Amino acid sequence: MAKIIWTDQALDDLNSICEFIARDALRYAQVFADRVFKSVERLEDFPKSGRVVPELGIVTIREIILGNYRIAYRLKNDEIEVITVFHSARLLDTSKFQP
């Protein structure tokens, strides 16, 4: 079973998204955050279940899609490092993927 590590960047991203959603619907913001955490928890048992991030093409950097959002993570031995969470309409900020 892989260990999940959330980067500060990923937590900041998630917090910003939830704050934005909460402006109109606090309950939906809470539901969204729960769905993100549950989706990431599934990676503990199936770390390679996400697709390779197409813009990067690096097999150790993958993502899961949750509605209109992308959750990008890096595989490191027995660890899953969640790198960023962002809306799929936005361009990928490749600077977030530096080792």
Give the strand tally. Answer: 5
Summarize the amount of helix as a percent range: 25-40%
Q: In angstroms, what is the radius of gyration? A: 13 Å
Quote the average pLDDT: 95
Give the biggest beta sheet. 5 strands, mixed
Assess the beta-strand content as a share of residues: 25-35%
Query: What's the order of the H and E elements?
Result: EHHEEEE
Low-confidence blocks of residues: none
Q: What oligomeric state do these chains adopt?
A: single chain
Q: Which of globular, elongated, flat, extended, rod-shaped describes the shape? A: globular
The termini sit apart by 23 Å
**Adjacency order of strands in the biggest sheet:** 1-5-4-3-2
The helix tally amounts to 2
**Structural class by helix and strand composition:** alpha+beta
Structure description:
Helix content is 31%, strand content 29%. With 99 residues, the protein is of the alpha+beta class. A five-stranded mixed beta sheet has the order 1-5-4-3-2. Strand 4 (69-76) and strand 5 form a beta hairpin. It is globular and about 40 Å long. The mean pLDDT is 95.
